[in-house]
Amino acid sequence: MKIEKISSRVLLACVILIVVCFAAFLTIGYDNPVGDNNEPILTDVIMWLMYALVVVTAGLTVWSAIRGMQSSKGNDPAATTGVPGGKITLFTAGLTIVSVIIGWVLGLGESEFTASDGTVTSAGWVTVVDVFMVSMGILLVAATIAVAVSMTGIATKSASK
Length: 161
Prior knowledge:
By secondary structure, this protein is mainly α. It has six helices and four strands; from the N terminus they run αββαααββαα. It has helices at residues 3-27, 43-71, 77-81, 85-107, 123-152, 154-160; strands at 33-34, 37-38, 113-114, 120-121. The strands form two sheets. A two-stranded antiparallel ribbon has the order 1-2. A two-stranded antiparallel ribbon has the order 3-4. Strand 3 (113-114) and strand 4 (120-121) form a beta hairpin. Helix 1 (3-27) packs antiparallel against helix 2 (43-71).
């Protein structure tokens, strides 16, 4: 089976799993008032889905990197595909570091947070949450742009010219 077919099937399976989980989350016990708050019954399902997706993605990323290094021993993949993998890796690492720095700068000076049940979160942890939320937003936009560029084929057309 070709890698493109496997990739398409895995993507379709992931999308179906995510849609089913979110549909169940929003339709089964979503209105579950507990005190002044709403506590959906299937919140744990969404959390475990996200944990599983992160673990599987991290594992596949490591596997893909190792497999890519083994298959391109001494060869320059950019010469055959036109995609400069080394530059993309450096750009991705740099963007991740820059996004964390931007999040940290924007999160400076946060005050402690008191939840409705009286739980107090220190200002330091509020800043950490801000750092990761801003970083995720920046990386989400970058990933969306990268997918759009990849789908247009702009990066691979240069190898065939």
